[in-house]
Specification:
- The chain has a 7-stranded mixed sheet, sandwiched between helices. A 6-stranded antiparallel sheet has the order 2-1-3-9-4-7, with no helix packed on it. The protein has a 6-stranded antiparallel sheet with strand order 12-17-16-15-14-13.
- By secondary structure, the chain is α+β, with helices and mostly antiparallel strands.
- The chain folds into 5 domains: 4-134 and 236-310 and 584-639, no CATH class; 141-226, Calcium-transporting ATPase, cytoplasmic transduction domain A; 320-346 and 467-569, Rossmann fold (3-Layer(aba) Sandwich); 350-463, Calcium-transporting ATPase, cytoplasmic domain N, CATH 3.40.1110.10; 659-717, no CATH class.
- 46% of the residues lie in helices and 17% in strands.
């Protein structure tokens, strides 16, 4: 049975505590209740037919001893801990009813209270089980690789750097990197992603992921207490202690409310009889009813169960919320600020276009890649990757010199070449006519210039790839009344392109970390609540300063978990909408629960004083009836259905590398539209948004014919 004075105790797993074991009374509940009900029925029948008051009351007392065993046991514990609780109020009301010859009503009240308590326990069991499931996701044993064999060992004994094997159908016991093999993994327990993800060598595997296909070896990167799933479970436990303002207020209110009600009930019993000489039995009975009617259990249950149901429901969707208070804060958010790289985009730079002033695109990318081959910069890697995709052999470079943050120089076949940013080549006194950048300005890309002998040979434009879920996110937020803004350290032209593509309300580029903080400060003065969405590392200061920090990405680093208030464990941006939808529903349910509890309590209290209430009705409706209503209403959060259909990326992810003309052997990159590569379909290139099967986003009708601009022959996508 739950301690009603601490109505939330059965709902949460406090740090260092276990769920209470069932008592004998709880295990054999109906063996107590059914005989109690029979005895009470005999008691009422006996008094009605024979007027044998004494014997009928003896049977009623026997009924109370059976049904009230658990209540009495807890009431004694509450007295020992010096707590005034609903258990005590019920026992007092039940016993006192016999002194005014309302014993059957007192017995009925105790019986109904016991049944309602049991039903409450069954209702809250689902919340407890949901939390326990999170705590027990990862298996206890691992297959540790020792030379050429595998030995089953406890997970907690495996150290970082050791190799463990994962069989098909087996859950990964620890986080690690695949060092041998490849397979599909079901990561739904961690990220909420329902479709299996293909993983190969050097890909990260999370504990609790299910291997769907082939045997793989992984190198452990986190010990059992530090895995992502362990952090999720621990954060859920700690989140319950990070209470919302409304929870703290209600707890404080209930602490003083119960003694006040006890005093009020005594005054109702005494004042009418002493001051106005009214019938003592009548007003004593009304005072007892007032005790039961005014029990604050429903009010104290109104908030925590809904919050815990929301926390566990969100966790099942791969959304980690670090406290109940952040569910409450979500209702105040009006503006959502986004970082660009790694948040709205994949953080995966690729060549967008090649502009050659000598009409030889292949030579431009070939020389550029030869110069960039030793570079560790993401832009250099993107250029080298593109040359490999076009199967271009690279030149040998002599006297290569890298100027960090600017560019590279090197000698190829006796000639000196330069590659770098616009500013770098301007410093080297290259003649840069403004009109050569018009195309890059329109596309919002990063221009990388290649030059020789103070002459520009060509421009390679670089752009990040937009996440498929980004337009769905921004569009969904607009429909829900949120304002959006892009704040990024990237080039302003790039931010303009992304902002326009996604229909974001405003976009600010070329911001240093401290300038991002200034922007957040400015937004907080204009809007009731500001949320910041970032990758959780570079944006840590902005995440911390915002009213609600949301980190995106499955890596879930320590810094992310420490800084962000909400962590989306996958890269699916639609989860942000799921978060706001669930928190909105939760806050609405909490308001319903609070006002329902207050209104019913007040109405029944007035009816009690006016004499229109009985003891068993007070228990059945005004006390435990309302409590059960509050519990069931809170549990409806588990029934929340995702608003978005699962996106299939199979049609949107093209394996094509370039466009080829077999006649003149011209090779070109595949053009982009709406931030991603166009897709070949029915002899033409179409925008990926045309293939996006979503009712929440208008498809794009952009298409390009596959004909070579040089010889007008058919192009092939390879």
């Amino acid at each position: 049975m739950s301690h009603i004075t601490q109505c939330t105790k059965t709902l949460c797993l406090d740090e260092g505590s276990e769920v209470e074991k069932e008592s004998f009374f709880e295990k054999k509940f109906w063996y107590f209740i059914i005989p109690s009900l029979i005895l009470l029925g005999l008691s009422i029948t006996l008094e009605l037919l024979t007027y044998s008051v004494l014997l009928s009351h003896v049977l009623a007392i026997a009924s109370i001893l059976l049904s009230g065993y658990g209540i009495l046991k807890e009431a004694i514990e509450d007295i020992l801990f010096k707590r005034i609780t609903a258990n005590i109020l019920m026992i007092v009301a039940g016993i006192a009813s016999f002194f005014i010859l309302h014993g059957q009503e007192g017995a009925m009240a105790i019986l109904l209270y016991a049944i309602a308590e049991y039903l409450e326990e069954l209702t809250t069991e689902k919340s407890r089980n949901a939390i326990k499931e999170l705590l027990e996701l990862a298996p206890d044993d691992a297959l540790l690789k020792i030379e050429d064999s595998y030995e089953k060992v406890p997970t907690e004994t495996v150290k970082i750097g050791e190799i463990i094997g994962i069989k098909p159908g087996m859950k990964a016991p620890l986080d690690g990197i695949i060092v041998k093999g490849k397979s599909y993994f079901d990561e739904s327990a961690i990220t909420g992603e329902s479709l299996p993800i293909f993983k190969e060598e050097n890909d990260e595997i999370f504990a609790a992921s299910i291997n769907n296909d082939s045997f793989v070896d992984i190198k452990v990167i986190r010990e059992s207490l530090n895995t992502v799933v362990a952090k999720i479970a621990e954060s859920i436990k700690l989140a319950q202690q990070n209470k919302s303002d409304s929870e703290r207020f209600i707890e404080k209110f209930a602490k003083y409310y119960t003694p006040i009600i006890l005093i009020s009930a005594l005054l109702v019993m005494i004042i009418p009889t002493v001051v106005f000489s009214l019938d003592f039995n009548v007003w004593f009975y009304r005072g007892l009813i007032l005790l039961v009617v005014s029990c604050p259990c429903a009010l104290t249950l109104s908030t925590p169960l809904a919050n815990i149901a929301a926390l566990t429901r969100l966790a099942k969707e791969g959304i980690l919320v670090k406290g109940n208070k952040f569910i409450e804060i979500a209702k105040n958010i009006e503006l959502i600020a986004f970082d660009k790289t790694g948040t709205l985009t994949e953080g995966n730079l690729k060549v967008f276009n090649i502009i050659s002033f000598s009409n030889n695109n292949q030579e431009v990318i070939k020389i550029a890649a030869s110069l960039e081959i030793l570079s560790e910069h993401p832009i250099g890697k993107a250029i080298v990757y593109q040359a490999k995709q076009m199967q271009l052999p690279l030149y040998t470079v002599d006297d290569s010199k890298i100027t960090k943050g600017k560019g590279i120089t090197g000698i190829i076949q006796g000639e000196k070449y330069y590659i770098g940013s616009k500013n770098y080549l301007e410093e080297l006194k290259f003649d840069l006519p403004d009109d050569i950048f018009k195309e890059t300005e329109l596309s919002g890309t990063i221009p990388i210039l290649l030059g020789n002998n103070k002459t520009i040979m060509g421009i390679i434009t670089i752009r990040d790839v937009l996440r498929v879920s980004a337009p769905l996110l921004v569009n969904g937020l607009k429909k829900r009344g949120f304002k959006s803004v892009l704040i990024s350290g990237d080039n302003q032209l790039v931010c303009n392109t992304i902002g326009k593509c996604l229909d974001i309300d405003s976009y600010h580029g070329e911001l240093l970390p401290n300038q991002k903080l200034e922007e957040i400060e400015s937004f907080k003065k204009k809007f009731k609540g500001v949320a910041m969405v970032g990758d959780g590392i570079n944006d840590a200061p902005a995440l911390a300063l915002s009213d609600l920090g949301i980190a995106i990405g499955a890596s879930a680093t320590d810094l992310t978990l420490e800084t962000a208030d909400v962590v989306i464990m996958s890269d699916d941006l639609k989860k942000i909408i799921t978060f706001f939808d669930i928190t909105k529903r939760t806050n609405r349910i909490i308001r319903q629960n609070i006002w329902t509890s207050i209104i019913i309590k007040v109405v029944f209290a007035i009816l009690t004083v006016l004499g229109f209430m009985t003891l068993w009705l007070a228990v059945g409706i005004a006390d435990m009836g309302v409590s059960l209503l509050v519990l069931i209403n809170g549990m409806t959060i588990f029934r929340y259905k995702i608003k978005f259909k699962e996106l299939s990326l199979e049609n949107l992810e093209s394996n094509a590398k370039l466009i080829l003309c077999q006649i003149c052997e011209t090779k070109n990159i595949i053009p982009q539209h709406h931030g991603r590569d166009m897709i070949e379909k029915d002899g033409k290139l179409i925008c990926w948004r045309k293939l996006l099967n979503s009712e929440d986003l208008e498809p794009c009708q952009e298409e390009l014919p596959l004909f070579c601009p040089k010889c007008n022959n058919e192009l092939y996508v390879i």
